[in-house]
Amino acid sequence: MDVEYRILNLFKTKQYDDCLKLCANALQYKDDRMIDFIRMRSMTIQAKVAGNGYDEVSYFPNQDELTATAVAKTPRPGTSFQQKTKTTTNPSEITKKRVTATAVSRSRLATTTIRTRSARTALHTASRLSRAATAVAGNSIIPGMPVTLRFLEKDDKLFIPASKTLFEYIYYCEGNIRKAMDVAFQAQKADNTVSWWWNFSLARCYSVLGMYRNTEECLRQALRQNKHVSIYLRLIAMYVGMNQPLTALDVCKQGLSYFHDYAPLLIEQARIHEEMDLSALAVKEYRMVAIEDPSNMEAVAYIAMFNFYNDQPEIALRYYRRLLATQSPGAEIYNNLGLCCLYCNQWDLTIPCFRQSLYFSTDPETRSNIWYNLAHVALSTGDIILARRCLQVSLATNSGNNASVHALHALNKILHCRNTLNSENVNAHK
Amino acid sequence: MSIFKVKYWWSTDSLHTKETVSGSQNAYSLKVDRFNSHSDSDCILLAEESTIKVFKPNIEQENSHTLLESELEDVILQIETGKFVSEIADRQIIVLHARSYSIYQLLKQEGHTNAGEQNKLEPLVRHAFTRKADSLTCGPFGNIKTRDFICIQGLDGSLSFFDQDTFLFLCIFNDVIIPGPISYIANCDAFVLCKSTWVLEIYSYQQLREFSELSLRQNKQNVPQWTYSACEEITQIQVIQTSSNFSSIIALGERHLCCFQDNGLMKFMIKFDYMPMCFNSYLIGWYYEPTARMLVMVASDDCKLYVYENTTLLWSCDLLHPVISIARCFLKNLPGGIVSLSNTGIVNVGYLGTEPDLNGNARAMINEPIDPEQIQAELDEVESALQKLLDDKDEAATSFSLVERTINIKADVGKPVQNLFQEFSKGDEALHLLMCPIIVMITCDDPKIIQNVQISYVCCFPFACSESAISLDRINGTEIIETQVFLTSHCDISDTRVVIMFTITDSAGKIVVLSREILLPISLYCTPIEIISENQYMLSVRTNNPIVEFTQIFTDFNGEDLSSNTITFGYRSTKNTITLKIRDDHYIIEANNFTEITSVLDHFLVKLIDHHRRMSTKDFRFDFQYDKEFKKQLLHNFLKSIEIHAKERIKLKGFEDELMTLHGQFTLIQKKLLVQYGSLPPGDCESLEFLMKDTHHRLVSTVQEIVKCKDTVCNLGSTLSTVGRLILCILKQVTHDSLKMKLIEEMMSVNSLYEDYQEWEEAAVQGVFYILNTLLKKSDKDKEKLAPVTEQDALSQINVKRCLKQTKVILEMMFEDASAEDQDGRVARTEELVEVI
Question: Which residues form the PTHB1 platform domain (chain B) (predicted)?
């Protein structure tokens, strides 16, 4: 079989590693434009997968302090994610409240924080499990990149068909944003019918460079040309990154009016509502997502968490069990199962769940949180000494666990009170 | 993502004998169709390099599953079925090779003998062409009802049309680099092409026909019926008739799946969060029924199968094998099975079973029985041990000394030698010429108790060590480590000691830190020169023992250099001089600056004490004598050096602020410029470019200024600490209140100055303020007057002035206290004398 057919077949069946090996061999002996381009495409796709290039939404937007071209710097009151809510999700708030709250209620309060946090980690891990790798987009450089790639002249008649391939190659494999932008501009000049994709790609470049005003402009223009879901997602991600949830929600709404009940848009909307602490709305949207795509773990995890805080631990337990059945087991899911069991009064399962959770936990922060929850289990059985021990272990694994510090403080106070009372009683009896 | 798995029904795994070459098969290598000769069940056609295999799976074990295997003359690119020859009623098989295609008929002969029935491929048509082929599509082009035409896409993207074995016409496209999938829409007699521009283009057959004639006249453009800019590479296309009027076109991209009606209306788009490998769409019901549902099954690269109806996910399950092609089949005992071709060439037939594998992922719970009493006992034991350790300090102390006992450290300094390697001679050669080896010997009796040792050298600017830290993983016996110390800069020498820290991790992970201090030889930084007898400042040292010759003290130098009672040293770094004299019963140290006195005095005192210890002189004491002018000048000099240091730091800070501003400006201009470059048409960039160059120039010059300024600050810092040390040295001798002395020493914090870290003022201000408030019981008014202004930082003019004033007050107080004490002591002694008399 001819090597070019083999390369083509491997490329079409997405076996890129073998394909690249064959390409390297074949290109040693002869020049072939098709093989050259196949090689470029294969490398691009691999870099794209490794660099999360297919994800329109990056979950940790990095704000550049020096950017003067950002659209808005200070959010208007009431439109920001950073508003301080009165829920228990903010640990720093609790530390401020410590003067007014009594010892016991404070420890309870702190407990719920940890529950939120651990449930949240479960959620986040769930949402991230489906992604392949964690390299930063645009910066992944593949070793052994062909240096002698024969790029085309812009007057070549093949420049227009090749330009998109070239752009993606430069953007993802070489990570050279400026050069990629140059290709984009040249292609736009050469082609009289400008595709929406060029605007979209320019927006990608601008957002990497942190130029949000230009990003927005390009995305809006692309949206006028074609209603593609990627554009909506990028717009939403950009507004979320700039801390403008209301505008992001507006884009969600526009997108949903075009793509009815479309899961990727719904999930973005739900995430924004979740961040804004509108859990009732968020859970409604997550339920819609779960109906559209029952395998979406993020939605299931959130519904479970919502039920848990809605005082329906039995229902939450069922959702968590489903998650356990369909995904690979982890520390967070067992931790959440353990808490559900505790509140469902399934005492026999609580401790085994937590043991399993400890078995799977790897980083000290999670371990510390699990021990904190175990202290809560001990408290609910009335074993203050055991609770104190658990808290001590929690602090030993992660000394930065604020909630544990406060809970331990409160417990020590209680024990101290009890001891003095006891001794007074003894004295009185004497 | 799912608890379900595809149920295994049949596979060619056992029939698969030889290893397939990777890349020999693609999605077109598998075809499922039904033939008249085998009307009871679908046949599965498989191409394996140049072999064609026909399977008819069944559940009976004794019947053969393979209908035939036939070796053809060339490698097979694609297998299709259709009615290519109108005379034959049965569907025929077309096989595409690189430069030819052949049409076969599958014949079945009922067996008369024991051999049973026989199958064979009867060749009908064979046609060769010149362009290298990539794929083919077939159908009743031009609405011809009787038979199917053939369209072959070449590797260069050209389309050649054939009817049986006659060539019809050729279309050439010049925007195809990698040939994409093509498909024929029977409903509207059109073709879907996917080009390298990542645009889906739909041309009618008529158009392509005209295009082939037009292509002779190059200037005419051929506009497609409609296009869709998918803007990702389309990997697979399928056309399926979904109603009596319409067909649906389904295109699979890298991450999206789009579905169109044949008039260009988009029906839906699915965005995947996995990498799709291949898909197959099918109808439930017949296309003329209004209730017909179109489902799409997609196989992912992590071997999962997803079934969608529109955008809703209906089913997902595990496929068990990675697949490159997937299809549906209707076998005799299995209606609606799933045929998949894996990348190793194995064909699997399965069905969507509903036997969930619950908790397939979950491991067995860790739930071995535990004895609570036993655990309680263990806990008690651990806690009591912990308590014991907390209560008993001695035990910890003894365990510390265990490491110290096993490890024996000797640190010594060698004679300065010529730097022969020239490694460090970047600047002034004379300065770097001498270097002094420091030799550390570590002996460990029991190597097992030590995990590793890290040795760090701390020396004061302008001295530097060739290696600042050394890590030893294992000590076996004795280790000898040699490091070099040398001068790096022309500034005052404040401290001539090198501290060597040993951080030892023992086998239990406990860390012990030991340290050794060594004095650098005077010959490293000084040389004896001609005697200079006239000097401005004079400090005399009086001892209670007879005078010792200089030759006995400065043993680093030869006796000849130091024969007389007067010697002068010249500093190698600053070229300044210091003179030492012996007068009757005391030593006199003279210099023109205070900065010279410190290190030589320090060295002299250490050696003197050392000498007397060697002579085993008991009760050796010495004290300093100086006049009032000396004290006044010393204080003045110290305050002056603080002031200059602070001033220079303010200057440095100004430069640093400027650098920050310029940096921001530079970034901004770059961004503006980028926007200009990108705009269409490009805007006028000349002025911006000029601005950028200018800013860059200023950036460079500012950085140079900063480097220069930093050097100055460092030099001034070492001057400051040199004078500070002298003051401390004198105060230590004359003050008897050890607490006060300690406080003053901490306040001066001369150790806090080293190389880049020059924030002495900030450190000292706190100490000064504390001493002022607690030691000197000043009135509140005074305190307020001298308190630093909190809203300004320590370097502001007012704060520096106040700091200077405070320091002056404190140091004067200390000197006054000392002289007062002295007088008291003298008075007391006189009284004693009187009494004795």
Answer: 521-625
